[in-house]
Amino acid sequence: MLTEIDQRLYTVPTAVRRFGGTALVVGLVALAAAAVIAAVSSGGTLRGFGDVFWRPYLVAYVLWTGVAVGSMSIMMLHHLSGGGWGVVLRRLFEAASRTLPLCLILFVPIVVAVLTHTLYPWTMPEIAAEAIIKKKAIFLNTPFFLARTLFYFAVWFALAYFLNKWSLAQDTEEDPRRSRSLRERMQNLSGPGILLFGLTVTFAGIDWIMTLEPEWFSTIFGLLIMAGFGLTSFAFAILAAVWLRGHGRLVEVYQPRHFHDHGKLLLAFVMIWAYFSFSQFLIIWSANLPEEIPWYLRRLRGGWQYVALGLIIFHFALPFVLLLSR
Questions:
Q1: Which residue blocks in the chain are alpha helix, DSSP H?
Q2: Domain count along the chain
Q3: pLDDT per position as a tens digit, 108-155
Q4: What is the pTM of this model?
Q5: Residue at 313 is within a domain
Q6: CA geometry: angle at 151 spanning 150 and 153, to 5°?
Q7: 204: Cβ–Cβ under 8 A, 6 or more apart, which residues?
Q8: What does the angle CA 158 – CA 159 – CA 162 come to, to the nearest 5 degrees?
Q9: Domain containing residue 256
Q10: Residue 301, domain member (yes or no)
Q11: What whole-number distance in Å separates Cα of residue 3 and Cα of residue 137?
């Protein structure tokens, strides 16, 4: 049967309901305002609207989809490895993974951008006619792009569905043998599930982000996206745990030792992300190849160099120093 702690976990507090409703209203208003600003500043052209609206939307979309998908991956890591660090965050990861249907719905605007040729250069006729893009046409075409996206979400849906279903069944199961069998099911699914996560996230990162510049490529890009998904989802779960504890929820569950474990794991994710990012930069910069180096040159000029500096400081240096402290 559900323990008292689990019952409280499954009971949505009033503060959460109120916060969720407020967040939805703010999100819709901000989305509408962004669309209006983009329409006014686009010069009345679809291409201009795409530059102003679709790209920021894509960045935000990948961020929050990464929280949902990354939460599922950490959940599978916990099923495989065990440990108290994942027990207290398990429900948060499961809840985050259940937002995947919403992520699929929010992909619809990106589909519109693809069909109207206003986001990805390889969908624009004048760029698709270039020799280097023609060689990639077997992969970079709209039907195959959309089919791949549906496949990614099908895999993520299946993994999240069964892991959530068996987890809840384990909590309500009174027979110890049946409970152990459910735990073994989650472990058995998590093994190939981690492999599927790696493959789908790698190709999703290539499809959704790398093809914004179809001439460029990086063999470490998939690992960079996976590290980013893991980092953002883990940081989000910690923030949610702190917020719940601050509102008097599960104070007896989230102990200081748990947060200490989470801080050490978050430090590991920060270091992994920084390692992949610097590795990609070092290899491309030192090679100085004309088909690779423009990607970084564009990001180190025209004001973007300050964004890059901000990433170094606030995405690595500051978290690294803070998380070193107990």
A1: 4-10, 14-41, 46-49, 55-81, 84-87, 90-97, 100-105, 108-115, 125-128, 131-134, 142-172, 176-208, 221-246, 256-287, 294-298, 304-310, 318-324
A2: 1
A3: 999 999 999 989 999 998 888 888 899 999 999 999 999 999 999 999
A4: 0.89
A5: no
A6: 65
A7: 148, 149, 152, 225
A8: 80
A9: 4-274
A10: no
A11: 55
